[in-house]
Amino acid sequence: MFGKKKKKAEPQILAESWSPCCQIQAFVEESDTCCYFYLWFHAGTENAYMRSCWICNVGKAPDRIDVDAMEYGRAPAMPEEYVKHDAGGIRLDRDKLSIVWFEEGDAAALLEGDTLICVIPGWSGYQGFNGYSRYARGTAPYAWELAPAQEVLGARVSKSREFWNHFEGEYWEEVRQPHEKALEDFFGKPEKYLGIDGKKFPPKVLVQGIRDGVRYGITVGVSLLPMPQVEQYYQGEAADYRRIELGFAASEGQSEICAKMYSYIAAQSRLPWLQISFLGHGHTIPCNTIEGFSAVWLLNSRLLPQIAAPFYPDYMGEKINLLWIVPLKEEELQKLKEIGTEEALKQLEGRLEELPVFDGTGKLL
């Protein structure tokens, strides 16, 4: 009599956590062959996608890539030549597992006690790179060896843990006061404060004021969180560009337009963390809030000293970038796509100071 084929055990979730600011779920899953660390982006939506990194094998390491597992949608065990732990497999202690989110909220690390064992950084998912594992050897198929990056990533994990712990204390006043001083130095005593955070973390307000006949609405609090993906673009200069505030300026008589744009700004202040992206100098975003206009152009005041703007002190040792929101008509948008921001600003030489001030006309025509 033939014995019954042993049924494979269902995978078990050993640890899980949600990003503090992005729609990303992190979890550790153990099957009967291996353990993986996963980041599930836009979890539960039609735009969802997964990033995964092998942590360790639970059972005996195979001598080659497990093609069958991948074909049937199962997590493949790491081939023996790439495994640094015992070839018979190891088990993680689920009671000692913890997940630490990076400051941008789009990457995470897994620790077992005080030991860093796996990291899925923001630059994973490119050219076959999944992440780093303490138990991987070399540039393995499902994870790269952690040891060469241990010092840098270990320091980053520690810094990230301190960053999130900071928000468990009384942090808002230390943010609000220097921002409000910067705005008061720029346009005098504020006229009005508008809450734009929907009573969700992080706290954000839009401060309104008037200077030389121009009405301003400028956010306070968006720069509390560094934006995702900036590091992939700016590399070593990321700390100078990953914190932003948003501002809109309009000439007198545009109060109705201002009210509409302030609602638009409130929505866009969440955009980087909703889309796992970033906003920066020269970027354009669709906007039909103002009749006859189809987009807005973002200009970094820190890069355009000709334009009057608030001066911000650094926050956590990093620059704060005020992005002016400049409405564009469709023909302006098309022109900008053709010539680019640098050339457009050259053509506006001598008129740059007026560029962010909306007066109902297109500035690029």
Structure in a nutshell:
Helices cover 22% and strands 26% of the residues. It contains seven helices and 17 strands. Strand 14 (284-286) and strand 15 form a beta hairpin.
Task: Explain the overall architecture.
Strand 2 and strand 3 form a beta hairpin. The chain is of the alpha+beta class and 365 residues long. The strands form 3 sheets. Strands 10, 11, 12, 13, 14, 15, 16 and 17 form an 8-stranded mixed β-sheet that branches. Strands 5-6-7-8-9 form a 5-stranded mixed β-sheet. It has a 4-stranded antiparallel β-sheet with strand order 1-2-3-4, with no helix packed on it. The chain starts with 11 loop residues before the first strand and ends in a 7-residue tail after the last strand. The protein is built from 7 helices and 17 strands. The protein is elongated and about 75 Å long.
Q: What is the H-and-E element order?
A: EEEEHEEEEEHHEEEHEHHEEEHE
- How much strand? 25-35%
Structural class assignment: alpha+beta
> Sheet bearing the most strands, described?
8 strands, mixed
Q: How many DSSP-defined strands?
A: 17
Shape descriptor: elongated
Helix content: 10-25%
Mean pLDDT: 94
Salient structural properties:
single chain, 365 residues, alpha+beta, 8-stranded mixed β-sheet, 5-stranded mixed β-sheet, 7 helices, 22% helix, disordered N terminus
